[in-house]
Model the fold of this input.
Amino acid sequence: MHIPDGFLSTPVWACAGVASVPGVAYFARKSRTALEDGQVPLMGVMGAFVFAAQMINFPVGVGTSGHLVGGALLAITLGPAAACVVMTAILTVQALLFQDGGVLALGANVFNMAIAGVVAGYLPYRYWGATRHRRLAIFCGGFLSVFVSACLAMSQLLLSGVPMPPAVAMLSLALFAVSAAMEGGITLAVAGALERLNPRWVQGSEKDARAGVGFILVTALLLASAGALLASALPDGLEHFAENVGIAGQAKAFLASPFADYEARFLQVEWLRKAVAGILGLGVVYAACLGLGKIAARRSGAARSV
Amino acid sequence: MTPLIDARKVRYRYADGTLALDGVDFQLFERETVALLGPNGSGKTTFVLHLTGLLHGEGIIRVCDLAMSKKNLPKIRARIGMVFQDSEEQLFLPTVLEDVAFGPRNLGLSPEEATRRAKLALEQTGMEEAAARAPYHLSAGEKRRVALAGVLAMSPEILVLDEPTTFLDPPAERDLVRLLRELPQAKILVTHDIPFARALATRAVFFEKGKIAGHGSIDDVVRRFQWEI
Amino acid sequence: MHYLVLERWSRGDSSFHRLDARVKIAALLLYLVAIATTHPFRWSAFAAFALLVLSGVIAARLPLGGMLLRAAAVLPFTATFAAISALAGDTDAAFRLLARSYASALGVLLLAASTTMPALLHAASSLGFPRILVLVLQFLYRYLFVVTDQAQRMRSAALCRGSALRRGAKRERFRAASGVLAVLFARSYEKAQGIERAMLARGFDGRIHLLSSPRLAWRDAAFLGLAASATLGLRFLLTISA
Done:
């Protein structure tokens, strides 16, 4: 889902931009050796390949068809760092030449698809790629790359105050799951066909696969993205929760005061309230995932030592 | 007279184990134009890739009296200009001028000097009008000329052209022949196009199963290996 | 294909085309930020910003109708959300979404239709984009048409042979499509290897030396000043009048 300009509120596109710049810079640094290794032409041509791949339709469901999005496939063929740079390049070209996604919204789109989407698409493969669950891992990678980025995009829209009844948000969650499953299937089919042509094209993944860690990370990601969406769709519930815990009031006062004078004129207080609640919700979900991950890690560690 | 290219007993095996070159001996002298003929997969292209150090097999190769080694590679690549079969792959920069200036820039020349040389090379190949255009929009013949300009801009002593006439229509091929005739460099032509080879080559070498199966004048080689329709 | 149209437009020859790409990018960002931060965004705001960008379209001698039509590429996505907003009872938000995204798309289109991709990449490079990203963009753009043409040819070839791409059991079609993609991937991979060889043969040593961008001329600065004052002026007028 490419967010066009005009949808995101200023804090959201600005934050997403600020978040994605160091992300892309980090991955660009990591793939810097690609310059000497002659990988750069490969990365560019693979970007063109992803564009071209969108012309090939895959039959899915009754009378509908889908096409490859490509984040997970790039991650398992080029590695996550190069894949992130290639996806960023693709999104830039789409925004400039195809009016597919905005320019101010590029930060958000890059964050959702080139950073979160690629990392999510690579994680399962990283941890299960060498086990007997390899095929499942590739499928999950495709699934997660689309699901995570769609959920993030949707929550950014909701945080920006795009009006949407909770029922529609729930429905879109279901739709995301369907298109994510499509991407999983397509990624799996193409990766399989590639391996038959030349096994070296698909990156090897390490033998010592800490499947437990992978499971936790994937679950956390899934929870975080779906949770972000839910939290921004139903900020009132979470706000209620946060108020009970007693942090919302302070946080709201803290966040609102520096902006109050400036923003009050053209920004409804209602809107700010929602945004703060949404961000708080994200924080709560994030903390929950972190805690859950820690507990599970301890447990799997204990299981291994037994 | 020392040969410009002196290759002895070149052997090369692909990663999958097939023997692509099986002891090739080859010399190229100044002002010569040699046509490499032979069936597909007989090792012609594999051999010329060795001459620019893009593939490394066994055997000894000297180019302009320089031994093939990592240290000498930049010098060798400045002296031997390679025009690949697929010009699309050779012209990878956004505009014609930038692409032609790519080689000179790699020689360490300043941007101004590189641009000057690129413009000269484009003039030499009759493509000066196309300097600002995108390679994608050129015709097959124009692409070939620009690819050649990109090589000439480095002022090489040897030109290697791999299947230069593919995708060219007869007038474009005629223009290419005329252009190549005027160039003083020694040339190696890898080609299936016998009229083209006849028009340019001073002698021919016939490759078969990774070996040189015969050499001589074009007509001799063509007759001996029945290499015409 | 439709993106070829944009390529042709971008190679036009007007004084607007000849402006330095960097100042055009800066002006576009100002324009987009102004649209994003103007509250409330009513008809007047939409009309004002649209007029601003359309004066640029006229200065660049670009086809007005074609530009208006192409910018509509954002509408399918936007209209969906606008419809949801309208159904949720917030027609103001629906209009805001449509107007903001369309006006923004027009601005981006003006930049893309008046600046060639090489010029944009040079500008991106001198504005501090990561080098590797600029290079990947450059290769991506260079081979975009080459690879999509190839995909098109493979698709037609497969369809000509009555392939499973269109008929047959869903399973078969799925397999056929993934086969086509795998072959396309293989071709792209080979192409990349060929490019690498061609680069090495011309002395590539791991560093791409680009020809540098020219200095900014006074008219570039003048344009930026004009665009900035017009955009910011509009932005504040609209806020005060609201």
The mean pLDDT of chain B is 92. Chain B touches chain A through one residue (CB under 8 Å). The longest strand of chain B covers residues 19-28.
